[in-house]
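Homework help board

Subject: predicted structure for assignment chain

Our instructor gave us this sequence and asked us to write out the predicted structure in token form, then describe one feature. I got the tokens but I'm not sure how to describe them. Can anyone check?
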Amino acid sequence: MPENSAADYWPALDRSGKLDHEVNDLHDAIFLFAVRVLQGAKKDELPEIWKRYAPHWRRRLIREAFVYVQTVCSVRYASFQAQTRDDGPTQIGMAH
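My token output:
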């Protein structure tokens, strides 16, 4: 990890737009993989992705990185919930 504090490093790495195969550090690659997978997940995929990968991410990432990944997942889930409320119950699953 560069000189930045962990609190600044992980958000900056996320904002960099890099993908997991564009970095040399294994922890950075795992972090980027996690963030990009969660950011690209569809509503129905998100819980299964979290269930499948979160235990691995928790073991392999430092705490600050994993907390950031959890936040990405929570924000993504909340955006789906807000979209569902905005669309109303008759629109669930119909918007593509």
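Reply (TA_rk): Your tokens look well-formed. For the description, you could write something like this. Helices lie at 6-15, 26-40, 46-60, 63-87. That's the kind of observation they're looking for.
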